[in-house]
Amino acid sequence: MKGDAVVRIRGDRDDVFSKGFLCPKGSTLRQLHDDPDRLRRPLVMRDGVHVEVEWDEAWAVVADRLPAVLREHGRESVGVYMGNPCAHNLSPMLYNRSLLQALGTHRRFSASTVDQMPRQVAAGYVFGSPATVPVPDLDRTDFLVLMGANPYASNGSLCTAPDFPGRLEAIRARGGTVVVIDPRRTRTVEGADRWLAIRPGTDPLLLAAMVTALAQDGSIEPGEHVGKHLTGVTEVVAACAPFTPESVAVATGIPADDTRRLARDLAAAPSGSIYGRIGTTTAGMAGAAFGTATSWLIDVINIVTGNLDRPGGAMFPTPVAGSANTRGRRGSGSGFSTGRGATVVSGYPEVMGEYPAGAMAEEITHAGDERMRALITIAGNPVLSTPNSVQLDAALTQLDFMVSVDIYLNETTRHADVILPPPSQLQRSHYDLALLQFAVRNVANYSEPVLARSDGQPDEWEILARLGLIAAGMGLEVEPAAVDEVGITAMVHASVADSNSPIHGRNVTEIMAALGGQAGPERLLDFMLQTGPFGAAFGRNPGGASLDALRANPHGLDFGPLQPRVPEVLRTPSGAVELAHPVLLAELARLRDALPAAATAAASGQLSLVGRRDLRSNNSWMHNIEVLVKGAPRCTLHVHPVDAGRLGLQTGGLARVTSRVGEVQVTVEITEAVREGVVSMPHGWGHDMSGTRLTVAARRAGVNSNVLTDEAVVDPLSGTAVLNGVPVTVASC
Predict the structure, then answer these.
(1) Phi, psi of 375 (to 5 degrees)
(2) pLDDT digits over 483-537, tens only?
(3) Region annotation Disordered: residue ranges (predicted)?
């Protein structure tokens, strides 16, 4: 700092977890804060143009128009979309729920269904809770398989590990092995021991064949520890039997010998695991999606090789602030289910309280009298990040009312009648409530706001709380602090009444007094830390976790490496790891039916489109930061030289890429970074729309790959869209 200005940002070398590692998002928070395009005051649409107004005027518009839609058309006429940044911000993590409850709508959508939802659904069925996602124990493993993941570009996701690339290098330095399975020769491949260039979307075929190879070798060994709490292995092995390394080789592009070698090496390693990410959860094969099946089969492999819940294998974090698998009765529970409601048009079932993001457009345009008439977006840009973007962009023009909580006037918020900007990242406190649930070490770290908020600028939690008050019919008279008071009081009462809580039987007034009277996320966070698995429990465990303890330790608190947690981590009805859940077993029959079409597509030379990420521009909102987008254009179509020669393409020339739903023209880049039969475009570009305020991004607009993705192809168990493995044709322009 120099006075009130940020001069430089670097990682904290004394941080107990990061050791100073910093990603580009963190290093450019100053540029984001100072960006002249970042909204400082609310915008209201007048005569088709967004104009700046004071907060009181913006709230008056919301209070007038949102309740009017609710009164005339009911609660289900309003939808909510929550974007990726919500998972990185403390206020949305703690206050989005109260907003959703106040709205009373089931039409909830988020970035989860263009990202990680299949991984959580699989975990829900197998372990009883979608929060119970095993992560690779990177710092102790001997053999790591990465599927559809590129940590050198995007670090970790559903596996929080600062300096993921450095941890991979450490595996090899201590004599371990890293294998990458990916259609692209990524930077991660260059740092690995082995690369299997799989055809997009065929990951479940490879995994099922590995199960069969292990069975044929007599190497199905879950181990004594997990084996005592495990059901369904025999059923799963039998269901995988039709998938042999030989039968899937044409479809996957992986020779049978390589599949068998991978299975044997993983089984023989002292410890190891498979880690799958967005390339496995959002991939399609032969016009079908198997994201949840793939995530499940990753668990199957980790379990049958004896690598679940052991050091160096796939382990369960113990979040310091608690989670669904640290609270309540240990070792069993009600399990996981979906289908509490369905979309009107296509009948997609509810999953984890939401519907597929790809269904938003049709719920606006084709649901008749039940159509969605109003929309609230929170920190998201679905016009660029969800399937068939042209369709959604057109649908948003048909809404009666739209309000966005966002720092930018972007491709999505340009449709909003009111935009309510939260403070910048430097003006808010931070605790990684979501990401630390998937950390490779049990740690906690809290950051105070670096900069003060501007005069009159509400905190983000206050914006969300006031939206909820308006939706609940309480107008503008009640202050957001009232929402907070109701929420924290309910949490304390519930915890005191819970026989499994560390403050069971305590006096509610005593606990409330200890928490203090300051409304906001810090009070909620303190309560979660104090009642978490390492918590101070309001004096019962002196030296335990609390907000005061984190403030006194600005470099964080380290509660040690991951520890075995089976069976207490389980929340299944049986109290066991339920490997052969009927819903998951049924996916193998569907996978078997899809195998011939996948083999035919591979043999015919059908091109598959996959995405890619760049270290400096993982998300669309980063494209307005000059330092992150400068240099050679990165929004190009990667094409293998063999395919380029066949199609008559040249580097620097234009190609026309066509899918079932759309067509784009994009600059060609011929490279061996993709395997034959695969073309690649980055995700999140397409900043050439009118009505936005993204000066830097507009100069490097790029092409929106989601013009090509198909909203009708989704994983049936999770509702997740296919962003990778999209069938396309490519021709020279």
Answers:
(1) -145, 135
(2) 899 999 999 999 999 999 999 999 999 999 999 999 999 999 999 999 999 999 9
(3) 319-338
- Residue 733: CB atoms within 10 A of its CB come to 10
pLDDT digits (tens, 9 = 90+) for 659-685: 999 999 999 999 999 999 999 999 889
Asked if 727 and 287 touch (Cβ cutoff 8 Å), the reply is yes
What is the 3-state secondary structure of 23-58?
Answer: CHHHHCHHHHHHCCCCCCCCEEEECCEEEECCHHHH
Q: What is the pTM of this model?
A: 0.97
Query: In the block, which residue shows the tokens 């006194």?
Result: 552
Q: pLDDT over 70 for what percent of the chain?
A: 100
Rounded Cα distance, 204 and 243, in Å: 10
Nearest-angstrom CA–CA distance, 452 and 179: 46
Q: Tell me: domain 39-105+356-432+443-476, CATH 3.30.70.360, correct?
A: no
Torsion region of 566: left, alpha or beta (phi above 0 gives left; psi -120 to 50 gives alpha): beta
Strand 418-420 to strand 441-444: parallel, antiparallel, or no bridges (unpaired)? unpaired
618 band by pLDDT with thresholds 50, 70 and 90: low
CA max distance for the chain: 76
123 closest CA partner among 571, 525, 722, 719: 571
Given the DSSP bridges, would you call strands 273-276 and 143-147 parallel, antiparallel or unpaired?
A: parallel
Could you tell me the two tokens for 163? 């300096």
Peptide bond connecting 567 to the previous residue in cis, omega within 30 degrees of 0: yes
> What is the per-residue pLDDT across 100-127, written as a single tens digit (0 to 9) for each?
999 999 999 999 999 999 999 999 999 9
Residue linked to tokens 């931070």:
430
In this chain, the answer to whether the domains covering 39-105+356-432+443-476 and 606-732 adopt an identical fold is no
pLDDT at residue 191, rounded to an integer: 95
Cα separation, 534 vs 559, whole angstroms:
8
Query: Domain 606-732 carries which CATH code?
Result: 2.40.40.20
Spell out the domain ranges in the chain: 1-34, 39-105+356-432+443-476, 117-329+575-584, 479-558, 606-732
- Give residue 619's pLDDT: 74
Pick the CATH number of 117-329+575-584 from 1.20.5.320, 3.40.1170.60, 3.40.228.10, 3.40.50.720: 3.40.228.10
> Nearest to residue 130, comparing CAs of 459, 354, 412, 403?
354
Which of these, 51, 223, 328, lies nearest to 577 by C-alpha position? 223
Q: What values do phi and psi take at 81, rounded to 5?
A: -120, 125
C-alpha distances in angstroms, 274 versus 136, 239, 633?
A: 7, 21, 33
Length reported for the chain: 733
Query: Cβ atoms within 10 A of the Cβ of 473, count?
Result: 10
- Single-letter residue type at 424: S
Q: What share of the chain is helix, strand, coil (3-state, %, to 5)?
A: 40, 15, 45
**pLDDT band at 615; cut points 50, 70, 90:** confident
Report the mean per-residue pLDDT for the chain: 96
